[in-house]
Amino acid sequence: MRQPARSFSSGSSRDVSAGPASAPPRILMAEDNAINQRVGKLILQRAGFLIDLAADGVETLDAHKKQPYDLILMDCQMPVMDGFEASREIRNLPLPQPAIIAVTANALVGERERCLKAGMDDYLSKPFQAEQLVAVVTKWVAIRKGEKSAASTA
Ligand SMILES: [Mg+2]
């Protein structure tokens, strides 16, 4: 069982001596459905992850610009700006880049390729089991942690 993530304070007050690899991962869930938001947040909290929420692509972009995330769970179907466009926009930002995991209810053939083409790294189709959500987040948090510690020792 994973230890509960420590609460995250703003970047300016972060303990730099602890190194970037030990900071809790910053995770954003972009999801327009309030029930899906609640369920997803609860599943990830129980697994020890703290997450922030955004309800559409514009909110997602604004949140990432304010303080870049390590990982974004990106619902593809959202109002205002969908997950495909939000991902393309994020990939064009001159900011630290998050891992982006597409979450989509669209079972169309080629959907996975469409997500990857928009700049997303991985794919989770709805409906998913709690274990599948935890597994994909755990996987990408570990990948990001490896990248960060490699960068800090470079
Ligand atoms: Mg949606």
Question: Which features would summarize this protein structure in a list?
Answer:
globular, binds magnesium ion, alpha/beta, Rossmann fold
User: Outline, from the CA principal axes?
Assistant: globular
CATH class: Alpha Beta
Structural class: alpha/beta
Q: CATH architecture, please? A: 3-Layer(aba) Sandwich
Proportion of beta-strand residues: 5-15%
Q: What percent of the residues sit in helical stretches (DSSP H or I)?
A: 40-55%
Task: Look at the structure and give the mean pLDDT.
Answer: 88
The oligomeric status of these chains comes to single chain
Strand order, sheet with most strands: 2-1-3-4-5
> Rg, please?
15 Å
Q: What is the rounded distance between the termini?
A: 31 Å
Low-confidence stretches: 7-18
User: What is bound: which ligands?
Assistant: magnesium ion
**Overall structural domain count:** 1
Largest sheet: 5 strands, parallel
Q: Supply the CATH superfamily name.
A: Response regulator
How many helices in DSSP terms? Answer: 5
